[in-house]
Amino acid sequence: MTGTRIMGLDYGSKTVGVAVSDELGITAQGIETICRTSENKLRQTCARIEALIEEYNVGEIVLGFPKNMNNTIGERAEKTLAFREMLERRTGLFVAMWDERLTTVEAERTLMESGVRREHRKQYVDKIAAVYILQGYLDYRSLQKQSGE
Question: Could you report the per-residue pLDDT of 110-130, keeping only the tens digit for each?
Fold first, then answer.
């Protein structure tokens, strides 16, 4: 599966942050934030994700899993699992779930430390959260490979 990238997604009620790995699966780069007018209007969102999968030669997807801090699964996580099923059905790709607790907090902190003004942060936060989700997954896979040697 060399040369095949991994896509990271931060699925929110009105936006989906998108990141992709480099071809070696080492680093994550933010691509874009897909916006939709209503939470249930997913057709265009899925179509855009499919176009990005094609454009970036994606072979696997990792989706942020928004568990509650006490490790339970709430309404947002249920919707994310339904989105995962839809993605797998539409793309035919495996969709891994990745614990995304605190990624949005980390993304906000990064933007603050970078001097991005509060009113501009929202347009970047989902994309950066997707980068954190994907980078965490890539680092985990790298450690798994190392410990397997």
Answer: 888 888 887 777 778 889 999
Task: Write b or e for each residue in 98-132: b if 16 or more Cβ atoms lie within 10 A of its Cβ, otherwise e.
Answer: bebeebbebbbebbeeeebeeeebeebbbbbbbbb
- Provide φ and ψ at 142, rounded to 5°: -60, -45
Secondary structure of 17-45 in the HEC alphabet? EEEEECCCCCCEEEEEEEECCCCCCCHHH
The SS3 call for residue 8 is strand
At 125, list the tokens.
Answer: 């936060």
The 8-class DSSP code of residue 96 comes to E
Question: Which residue is listed with tokens 């450690």?
Answer: 143
Tokens of 21: 């790995």
The domain in which residue 28 lies consists of: 5-148
**Could you read off the pLDDT of 63-83 as tens digits, one per residue?**
999 887 788 888 989 999 999
- CA nearest 25: which of 144, 128, 137, 149? 137
Number of structural domains (the chain) is 1
Q: Closest Cα partner for 84 from 134, 128, 49, 136?
A: 49
